[in-house]
Amino acid sequence: MADRWIHSTGDQERGLPGLAGVEHIGFTVPDLEEATRFFVEVIGCEHVYSLGPFRSDGTWMSDHLGVHPRAVMRELRFFRCAGGPNFEIFEYEAPGQEARPPRNSDIGGHHLAFYVTDLDAAVAHLRRHGVRILGEPTASSGPSEGQRWVYFLTPWGMQLELVSYPDGKRYEAGSPVLLWQPSV
C-alpha cells in the first residue's frame, strides 16, 4: 500500500502546506436527537449550530460527499467538547445505507476518545447514566505507560473511549515530538 503514495524526494514538499491541526471529526448517527442528548447530557459537549437538510436531484451528493446520489442529509450538527477538536454529527437517509456501526477491526473502523482528568470518576458517571462500558479501565504499558483507558458504547453502538494520563506517558521522556494533548 505504501507504494501508492508519492514519496518526498529532493525539492518536493512533505505534508499539506499550512497544516494547522485537526479542525473537526464527523460521523453519522441513526437518530440526531438521541445523539444530541447523549453528547450534551452524558458527555458534556455543547451544541454550537445546525445545518440542513441537503439533497440533490443531480449528482452533487455523490460528486462532493461520496454517498448515493439520492442520499438525503437530514441535518448536521456541530459540537464543541472542552479543548479538543470540534465534531459534527450527521443523520442521513440513503438507499443501501448500512445500519451497523463498524467495529475497530473493520476497514473504516474508528472511535472517538475523550481525555478526562479523573478516569474513575468519569467511568462512574457513565455507569450512573446506564452507558455500556467494555471491560474495566486498562493501564497501558510500553511507551504509553502512565495512561489508563476504557472503551464504552453510545446508545446506537458506536465505540468511544475515555483516556487519562495525568502524569504523562513514558515515551515523552526521550521523544523530540510529543503527541497533542489537552492542556488541563
Defining key terms:
alpha/beta, four-stranded mixed beta sheet, 184 residues, 8 strands, metal-binding
Polypeptide structure, described:
15% of the residues lie in helices and 28% in strands. The protein is α/β, with parallel strands linked by helices. It contains 3 helices and 8 strands, in the order βαβαβββαβββ. Strands 1-4-3-2 form a 4-stranded mixed sheet. The protein has a 4-stranded mixed sheet with strand order 5-8-7-6, covered by helices on one side. The longest helix is centred in the N-terminal third of the chain and has 12 residues, at 32-43.
Averaging pLDDT over every residue, what do you get?
Answer: 91
Estimate what percentage of residues fall within beta strands. 25-35%
Radius of gyration: 19 Å
Span between termini: 38 Å
What ranges have pLDDT less than 50 throughout 5 or more consecutive residues? none
Give a short account of the largest sheet. Answer: 4 strands, mixed
Pfam families: Glyoxalase_4
Domain VOC: 21-165
Protein name: VOC family protein
Organism: Streptomyces sanglieri
